[in-house]
Amino acid sequence: MTTSELAARAGQERLADRLLRSTAARSYDPELDVDWSAAPQEGKLFLPEHRSTLYGTGMWERLTPDQRRELGRHEAASVAGFGIWLECILMRLLTKLAYEGDPATRHVQYALAELAEECRHSTMFARLIEWLGVPYYRPSRRVHALGRLLTATAHGPAMWGAILIGEEITDRYQREMAADDSIQPIVQMVNRIHILEEARHIGFARAELARSAARLPRAELPVQRLMLGRVAFTVARNLVNPEVYRSVGLDPAEARRVALANPAHHETLRYGGEKIAAFLREAGMIGPPATHLWRRSHLTA
Ligand SMILES: [Fe+2]
Ligand SMILES: [Fe+2]
Hints:
The structure is a single chain. By secondary structure, the protein is an all-alpha fold. It contains twelve helices and no strands. α4 runs parallel beside α6 and α5 packs antiparallel against α8 (185-215). The longest helix is centred in the first third of the chain and has 36 residues, at 65-100. The chain is globular. The mean pLDDT is 96. The structure holds fe (ii) ion (FE2) (2 copies). The site of one fe (ii) ion has 5 residues, from α5 and α8. One fe (ii) ion is lined by residues 90, 118, 167, 198, 201.
């Protein structure tokens, strides 16, 4: 190993060691730390109104306040269901890292600690869907197929970037909700737990992305960018399943068309993508031949 490789390995171990200490000091058990027996509170929302996919449209104006709150409940459940899909992918990728790596390193030990947290998060989101009392909005078969492809083929910056797209977009909305007391306390608590633990995951993945992007052979860059662009587009289009619109008597296909053309929804996506897109662009991971996928996703301005 060269001197610079040794220095990089030492830096990787120091970061993993710090994250492991933080995990030991502060983590949650959502089974115990969330009061799942509490009923939803009258008048509190499940999702901020301005984050609803139809907010600001004529369709939204025709909904009653109760219908808007109900739609928010279903949209929140859809995002939680999509979150489980994302976390299952993360768990498989982290398993790959542990399977192939050296378990005597702090690096692999941290991957295992993160895997345990993602597993608890998925249980937490599953309980949230149950608590919300709405159906499970399952991601489509195409999305499931893409997930399988991603777990089988992703490596290097596309793997870490895919993880970050999943974690950072939802993190932005969760931070907003955790600070908004018009939101149901149970939803706020779920968000607070996720924000705290994801901060470590994001730190870990950002460091790995920077390291692997710097080592990427130039010839591989277009494929890696395309894979990331495809993930970004899929995440943006599937956070909310169109079936949610049935809950307030709207036709899913028609409401979906309205949502996809809604400038307020585009702004919500741009807000969600702001930090991760800036980071990926800085690392050289956004650009041709995938620029159009990012633009169509509305995650970049
Ligand atoms: Fe998570
Ligand atoms: Fe995570």
